[in-house]
Amino acid sequence: MPGKKSGLAAIAVYMAFTWFLIGDATKATLTETERALGAEFEASQPDMRQEIPPFPEDELERPATIDQTIRFYAKKNGADEKTAYWIAWCESRLQNVPNSEGGTYGKGIYQFTQTTWNERCVGDVWNPEDNIACATRIIGMGDVNPWKPYSGHCWLPKI
Q1: Residue 133 neighbours by CB distance under 10 Å
Q2: What distance in Å separates the CA atoms of residue 72 and residue 57, rounded to the nearest whole number?
Q3: Is the pTM of this model over 0.70?
Q4: Tally of domains within the chain
Q5: 139 and 109 within one domain
Q6: How far apart are CA 124 and CA 130, in angstroms?
Q7: pLDDT in tens, 113-157
Q8: How far is C-alpha 86 from the geometric centre of its chain's CA atoms?
Q9: Which helix (H) or strand (E) holds 26?
Q10: What are the phi and psi torsion angles at 98 (to 5°)?
């Protein structure tokens, strides 16, 4: 009786789908067999709501601009927002660009050298979010030395 079983399974799928779309009003018009098949099918389905991980709270406030991203990560990493902002402004004017030597000495918003990036950061130096996250973490630890000799004359008077 393989045909009868597959037919019953199709009915169960149809009934479960109908219950989902129409709700309890449809259940009153079902035969006892249809109700049993639908309930069995419904019980066999996983509760999909439990399989979806909760959305991280900080993802809900994902910043849209470079200066918002700097503020976001400065708060997250305990860095002074003003210092973090002005270093980025003086280094790159908030642009994700190589320095004037084509990136030989500085890359991205905070103009990281490849050596500093490799020693202190993770991710992609050209990814603005990775660049900002690393810089604000370093600034949050009280270290501005990666930038002070090169752009300190620009940002120190502003903080």
Answers
A1: 20
A2: 13
A3: no
A4: 2
A5: yes
A6: 6
A7: 999 999 999 999 999 999 999 999 999 999 999 999 999 999 999
A8: 25
A9: helix 24-27
A10: -80, 160
